[in-house]
C-alpha cells in the first residue's frame, strides 16, 4: 500500500485516495478499471443499473418526469383495451348461438384467451418494470412472467395459423369441410396448440435450459432485481422459428390460395370453390348423380342458385379480407421482435434494452388489435351490439349483414313498429334467407 520515492522516502497517500473513492458516489462503468475481476465488474454494474432510482427502464434519466406519467398512462390504456376487448370477444362467442355452433369459434376463443393472458399478466408486469427501472418481485415471479409470456404469444400465433387452415379448407373444399373439421377435432387442435405452447416455455424457463452462459446473463440471474430474457443461441432461434417464422410462412401460403378460390367462385359456379344451397324439396324430387364443373351460371329448378352463390361468395370474400388484415397486422407487429431475438442470442451488445422493450411492446399491441379487427365481421358486430345494448333477442340468429339490420330497423321505425314486432320481423327475415 505504500511506496517510497527517491526524495526522502515520502509516503504517498494512496490508501486515503482509496477511502475517498469507496465512500464517495458510485463510479460509472468507465471509471472502475481498477477492478480486475470481470465477473465482479459485471455484477456491480448490473446491480448499480437496477438499484439506481434515476434509471427508469430504457428511458434516459434526462427525460422530464411528465414523460414517465405519459408512458404509465400509455401502458395502462393498452392493457385495459386488451383485457376488455378479448373478454368481449369470448363473451360474444359464448352468448351467440350462431357463433358458438361454428367450428371456427373454438379457434377464435383460443386466440382471445391467449391475448387475454397477455393483457392480464404480461403487460402489467412488463410496464411496471419499464417505468420503475427495476424488477420488484424476485426470481420466481420473473420465471412465471416469462412462462406466461412465451406460452401466450406462441398460442396466439398458432391459433391464427389454425384459423388460416380452417378458412382455407372451408373455401377450397366446402363440401368436405364438416367431415374434415368437426367440433371434436377443433377442440383437439386447440389442445394441441396449448400443449405445444406450454411445452416450449414451461420446462426451458423453469429448469433454466434457456439461460445463456455469458457473464452478463449469469450476473442477471444472481440478481433478484434483474429480470431479462437472456437466452442461448439455440433457444432463441428455435423459439423464433416455432412462434413466428413457421406459422407466418404457412399463413402467407394459405391465404392467397383461399382468396383465388373465393374470387373464382364469384364469377364461376364451380363445385370446388362455391357452396350451392339446394332446398330439401329439390333434393327429394331430383336425382343428383353428381355436380359438373361448368362455367355457366345455371339455376336449379325452384332455387335461386346464382344469387345464393354470389351472396355466399361476398360473405366469404369479406371474411377472408378480415382474416388477411388480422394476419397482416400480426406479421407487422411481431416481425421486429422475431428478428432481434435471434440477433440478441448471437450478439448481446447488438440489441439494447430499449430496442428490446420497444419491439416486444409492438408485439403486445397485436393482442389489442385483434378484438378491434373482429368488428369487421357482421356477426361480431351484431354480437357486440347485443351484449352492449341488449336490443336483440338471444334466439335471433346472426345471419344478416349489417346493412340489412340497419334497413330493417329503419323501416321498423318508419312503420311505428313495437320492439317485439321489430324482433319478430328480423327473425322471420333471417329464416327466409
Quick summary of this structure?
With 433 residues, the protein is an all-alpha fold. 71% of the residues lie in helices and 0% in strands.
List strands and helices in order, with pairings.
Elements: H1 14-23, H2 38-51, H3 65-95, H4 97-101, H5 104-132, H6 138-172, H7 174-180, H8 183-206, H9 215-222, H10 233-267, H11 280-285, H12 305-346, H13 353-374, H14 378-389, H15 402-414, H16 419-432
Descriptive notes:
The chain is an all-alpha fold and 433 residues long. It folds into two domains: 65-387, Up-down Bundle (Rhopdopsin 7-helix transmembrane proteins), CATH 1.20.1070.10; 399-432. The chain contains 16 helices and no strands. It has helices at 14-23, 38-51, 65-95, 97-101, 104-132, 138-172, 174-180, 183-206, 215-222, 233-267, 280-285, 305-346, 353-374, 378-389, 402-414, 419-432. Helix 6 runs antiparallel to helix 8 (183-206). It is globular, with a radius of gyration of 30 Å. Residues 1-63, 263-305, 392-409, 411-420 and 429-433 have low confidence and may be disordered. Residues 85-374 form the G-protein coupled receptors family 1 profile domain. It is a multi-pass membrane protein. Keywords: Cell membrane, Disulfide bond, G-protein coupled receptor, Lipoprotein, Membrane, Palmitate, Receptor, Transducer, Transmembrane, Transmembrane helix. The chain crosses the membrane at residues 67-94, 106-126, 146-165, 186-205, 234-254, 319-343, 355-374. One of its GO terms (cellular component) is plasma membrane.
Amino acid at each position: 500500500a505504500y511506496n517510497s520515492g527517491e526524495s526522502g522516502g515520502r509516503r504517498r497517500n494512496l490508501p486515503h485516495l482509496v477511502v475517498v473513492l469507496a465512500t464517495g458516489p458510485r463510479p460509472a462503468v468507465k471509471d472502475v478499471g481498477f477492478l480486475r475481476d470481470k465477473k465482479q465488474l459485471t455484477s456491480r454494474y448490473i446491480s448499480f443499473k437496477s438499484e439506481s432510482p434515476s434509471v427508469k427502464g430504457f428511458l434516459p434519466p434526462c427525460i422530464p418526469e411528465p414523460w414517465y406519467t405519459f408512458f404509465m398512462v400509455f401502458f395502462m390504456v393498452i392493457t385495459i383495451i386488451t383485457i376488455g376487448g378479448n373478454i368481449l370477444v369470448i363473451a360474444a362467442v359464448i352468448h351467440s348461438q350462431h357463433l358458438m355452433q361454428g367450428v371456427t369459434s373454438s379457434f377464435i376463443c383460443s386466440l382471445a384467451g391467449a391475448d387475454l393472458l397477455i393483457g392480464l399478466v404480461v403487460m402489467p408486469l412488463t410496464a411496471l418494470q419499464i417505468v420503475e427501472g427495476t424488477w420488484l418481485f424476485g426470481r420466481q415471479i420473473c420465471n412465471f412472467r416469462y412462462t406466461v409470456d412465451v406460452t401466450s404469444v406462441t398460442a396466439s400465433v398458432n391459433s391464427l395459423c389454425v384459423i388460416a387452415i380452417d378458412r382455407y379448407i372451408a373455401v377450397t373444399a366446402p363440401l368436405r369441410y364438416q367431415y374434415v373439421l368437426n367440433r371434436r377435432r377443433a377442440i383437439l387442435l386447440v389442445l394441441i396448440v396449448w400443449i405445444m405452447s406450454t411445452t416450449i416455455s414451461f420446462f426451458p424457463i423453469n429448469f433454466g435450459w434457456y439461460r445463456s452462459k455469458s457473464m452478463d446473463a449469469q450476473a442477471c440471474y444472481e440478481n433478484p432485481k434483474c429480470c431479462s430474457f437472456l437466452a442461448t443461441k439455440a433457444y432463441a432461434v428455435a423459439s423464433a422459428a416455432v412462434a413466428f417464422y413457421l406459422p407466418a410462412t404457412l399463413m402467407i401460403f394459405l391465404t392467397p390460395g383461399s382468396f383465388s378460390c373465393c374470387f373464382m367462385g364469384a364469377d364461376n359456379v364451380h363445385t370446388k370453390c362455391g357452396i350451392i344451397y339446394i332446398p330439401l324439396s329439390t333434393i327429394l324430387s331430383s336425382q343428383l348423380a353428381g355436380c359438373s364443373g361448368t362455367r355457366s351460371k345455371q339455376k336449379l329448378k325452384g332455387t335461386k342458385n346464382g344469387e345464393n352463390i354470389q351472396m355466399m361468395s361476398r360473405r366469404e370474400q369479406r371474411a377472408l379480407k378480415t382474416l388477411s388484415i388480422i394476419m397482416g397486422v400480426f406479421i407487422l407487429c411481431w416481425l421486429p421482435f422475431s428478428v432481434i431475438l435471434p440477433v440478441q442470442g448471437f450478439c448481446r451488445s447488438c440489441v439494447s434494452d430499449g430496442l428490446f422493450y420497444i419491439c416486444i411492446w409492438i408485439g403486445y399491441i397485436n393482442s389489442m388489435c385483434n378484438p378491434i379487427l373482429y368488428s369487421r365481421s357482421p356477426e361480431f358486430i351484431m354480437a357486440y351490439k347485443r351484449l352492449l345494448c341488449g336490443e336483440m333477442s338471444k334466439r335471433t340468429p346472426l345471419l344478416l349483414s349489417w346493412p340489412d339490420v340497419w334497413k330493417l330497423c329503419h323501416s321498423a321505425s318508419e312503420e311505428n313498429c313495437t320492439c317485439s314486432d321489430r324482433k319478430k320481423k328480423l327473425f322471420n327475415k333471417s329464416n327466409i334467407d
